[in-house]
């Protein structure tokens, strides 16, 4: 990232758009309860219309595949059994899965209704085209920030058009509308009203967001809640720790919350890391048992839920690798026809398991710049690149191998023109910006629940090509949006 000492655009513009961002909730909460705007670009990235339309077609197919895989409990237990000894969270999730669903000899059908709210992240590689980086099936947030980023660029175009045009990559490009917040809320509200109708309850349906204690990424969450409230849904927020003493069972497997009543949707924005289930106050002999049992308790009730334990397993890096290594014909067992299966396969980047053979191959034959080493962690900070891969592989014990996977490294197009990143109300010239494209989908009981056949908007996170971690929250990423170019 190259920094210019001089102001590149007028400071008045910077102040104006930073205030717009804060006013519209594009912010992180600070420890002193003030707000700081999220970092963002002042102009959108360009993508060929045909590329985006293909991603919009194939991403709901990926969600359809994952939705069916997540309900194939024999397959989940058999194919992921090797993971249990290699990663503590996986061990807990697999144990919970057996408690919820039984085993192949004694299969149990839990009452929970699967609501798959998923974000599939892509990079548009210079040579390979657009390929999947990862599936996000739990805590797959930031659809509101994605929509707000597109609106921020619309504000720039309206209020500061001369600045916007000066930094636009393609002058004839068409801004791409993003209704991610609204479409995701529609999918959630549809599920909530379905559960409410099942119980013949009066009043508003109720949505529970399970959150982390003292979280700073709250405004993105609140934006979704406001949209749900517009659709007639009551919203409440609780941590796992609070829920461990506040949930109880009502009649006919109704999930109930103290001082609230029946719950219709549970949406987990926590639970993707082992620490989310840890409470030092409980002083329990088995770490994280109580709070993970709270998650189990929820699944034993008739409530729309994202993410179910099986959805979290089905969107893991290990399952992504297994699906990537399968022939397309095998996807037909999960409801895809061959044309759909081939479309999904076309966007999956090559992956390899970590074992003695691949470690030996990597050390002698692999081009280290063509691969990235990933563990099962969600969010930023879980990838190893270049020379550090060999070092990491050499330090792994054999039982840790299954927690890791090698994945083809993607090199997206850099923008043809520099842009300006705004962070902490300061402007920085970035000459090598690359972008990650996340597409949201929403499916309830395996069926699409948006106005766009399951598609529910997008999130663009851009970063300097020289930076490995591109998260908005945990890396060097900035919020961005898309304009379409006719190729």
UniProtKB/TrEMBL annotation:
Annotated InterPro entries: Glutathione_synthase (IPR005615), Glutathione_synthase_a-hlx (IPR014042), Glutathione_synthase_C_euk (IPR014709), Glutathione_synthase_N_euk (IPR014049), GSH-S_sub-bd_sf (IPR037013), GSH_synth_subst-bd (IPR004887), PreATP-grasp_dom_sf (IPR016185)
EC number: 6.3.2.3
Record keywords, A-Z: ATP-binding, Glutathione biosynthesis, Ligase, Magnesium, Metal-binding, Nucleotide-binding
Domain Glutathione synthase substrate-binding: 206-314
Superkingdom of the organism of origin: Bacteria
Pfam families xrefs: GSH_synth_ATP, GSH_synthase
Transmembrane regions listed in the UniProt entry: none
Pathway in which the depicted protein is active: Sulfur metabolism; glutathione biosynthesis; glutathione from L-cysteine and L-glutamate: step 2/2
SUPFAM superfamilies hit by this protein: Glutathione synthetase ATP-binding domain-like, PreATP-grasp domain
Needed co-factor(s): Mg(2+)
Family under the similarity heading: Belongs to the eukaryotic GSH synthase family.
Protein name: glutathione synthase
Species this chain originates from: Vibrio alfacsensis
Lineage of source species: Bacteria, Pseudomonadati, Pseudomonadota, Gammaproteobacteria, Vibrionales
């Amino acid at each position: 990232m190259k920094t210019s000492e001089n102001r590149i655009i007028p400071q008045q513009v910077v102040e104006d758009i930073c205030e717009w961002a804060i006013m519209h909730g594009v912010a992180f909460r600070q420890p002193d309860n003030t707000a700081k705007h999220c970092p963002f670009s002042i102009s959108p990235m360009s993508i060929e219309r045909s590329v985006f339309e293909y991603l919009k077609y194939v991403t709901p197919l990926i969600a359809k595949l994952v939705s069916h895989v997540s309900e194939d409990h024999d397959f989940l237990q058999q194919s992921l059994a090797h993971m249990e000894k290699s990663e503590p969270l996986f061990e807990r999730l697999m144990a919970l899965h057996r408690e919820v669903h039984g085993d192949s000899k004694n299969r149990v059908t839990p009452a929970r209704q699967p609501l798959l709210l998923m974000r599939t992240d892509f990079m548009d590689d210079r040579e390979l085209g657009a390929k999947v980086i990862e599936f996000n099936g739990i805590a797959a947030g930031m659809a509101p920030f994605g929509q707000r980023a597109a609106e921020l660029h619309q504000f720039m175009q309206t209020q500061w058009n001369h600045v916007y045009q000066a930094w636009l990559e393609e002058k004839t490009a068409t801004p791409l509308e993003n209704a991610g917040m609204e479409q995701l809320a529609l999918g959630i509200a549809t599920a909530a009203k379905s559960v409410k109708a099942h119980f013949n309850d009066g009043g508003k349906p109720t949505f529970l967001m399970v959150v982390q204690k003292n979280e700073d990424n709250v405004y993105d969450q609140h934006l979704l809640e406001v949209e749900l409230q517009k659709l007639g849904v009551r919203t409440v927020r609780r941590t796992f720790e609070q829920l461990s003493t506040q949930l109880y069972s009502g009649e006919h497997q109704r999930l109930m919350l103290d001082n609230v009543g029946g719950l219709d949707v549970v949406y987990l924005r926590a639970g993707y890391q082992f620490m989310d289930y840890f409470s030092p106050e409980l002083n329990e002999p088995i770490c994280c048992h109580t709070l993970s049992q709270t998650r189990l308790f929820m699944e034993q009730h008739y409530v729309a839920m994202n993410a179910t334990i099986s959805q979290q397993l089905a969107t893991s890096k290990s399952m992504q690798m297994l699906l990537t290594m399968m022939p397309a014909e095998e996807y037909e067992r999960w409801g895809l026809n061959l044309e759909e299966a081939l479309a999904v396969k076309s966007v999956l980047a090559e992956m390899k398991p970590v074992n003695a053979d691949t470690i030996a191959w990597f050390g002698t034959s692999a081009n280290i710049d063509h691969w990235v080493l990933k563990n099962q962690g969600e969010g930023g900070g879980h990838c190893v690149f270049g020379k550090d891969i060999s070092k990491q592989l050499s330090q792994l014990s054999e039982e840790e191998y299954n927690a890791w996977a090698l994945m083809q490294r993607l090199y997206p197009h850099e923008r043809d023109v520099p842009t300006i990143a705004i962070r902490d109300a300061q402007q920085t010239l970035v000459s090598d910006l690359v972008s990650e494209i996340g597409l949201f989908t929403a499916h309830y009981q395996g069926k699409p629940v948006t106005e766009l056949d399951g598609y529910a908007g997008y999130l663009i996170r851009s970063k300097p090509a020289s930076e490995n971690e591109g998260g908005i929250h945990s890396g060097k990423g900035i919020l961005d949006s898309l304009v379409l170019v006719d190729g």
